[in-house]
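Researcher: Here's the sequence for the chain we discussed earlier.
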Amino acid sequence: MRSWLLPEYIEDLLPDEALRVEHLRRALLDHFIARGYRLVQPPLVEHLDALTTGTGRDLELQTFKVVDPMSGRMLGVRSDITPQVARLDAHVLNEAGVTRLCYAGSVLHTLPSGPGSTREIVQIGAELFGEAGIAGDQEAIALLLSALGAVGVARRHLDLGHAAVYRALVNAAGLAGGGDEADLFDAVRTKDAPGVAALAARLPRAWRDALCALPTLYGPADEVLARARNELLDTPAIANALSALATVSAHAAGDVDGLHIDLADLRGYHYHNGITFEVFTAGEAGAIGKGGRYDGVGKAFGRARPATGFTLDLRQLADVVARTH
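Model: Thanks. This is the structure I predict for it:
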């Protein structure tokens, strides 16, 4: 193998694509900054624990690890910029009130997300700290939708979820952290209804029925919310989650061409702890923007704060915009 060949799933950006990505980067950052988000540029590498603290094992597995020859400490090459921005908010800036930050840069994954994917992603995003109320979720979603509209993504479909629904059910049923919980998590996440039924068979009927309903609770927002109120348990945590989803749905409905809720969407479950969201567009199989609430991640850096935000893959978005214009 010739030494100048690139590693697998690592690619150059050639002139036309590089220019499209750069135009998008400038346009999106200008959009964020005009709405009060300040630009930060965290470093490419940090101490490993700073990159992975509070984010769950998924991110740790995606992080390249190297030994720093100067200190002998383990370093990580960032696989997501969001934890770095949380560190800046909690430990470096340490501001009172609401803090709005945005960023853009490359991240590196140990494994590609799928066939044809690259392991080096040009990530851009915005994060909102210090706003615990539903207004924070509404702002983050509205900013993502308006940013996509500003760069020419005309047709936008919003999918919402809420991490608290599944968490409330497994906690109340006494399954959290148990041996069956990992299998149940996978069954719910993949909408394996027979698998969920088998794993929940020994639970009291109310919990069993609610868990079995969860993989079926996806579709148009109003329909899913109505079914969820009838089929899930009426606990404070679940009621609050459904109320938050109803409020956010109503706020975003006029800005999208489609609006769905998926209560079995457990993407980032060990990281997110509130409303999650993804935006799709016609002709693109994967989400073109995703985010959600991740309160408390800054605790490891000395300051737990309410937090929500989103990221986009600039190379993916550049391809979408090029195909539709």
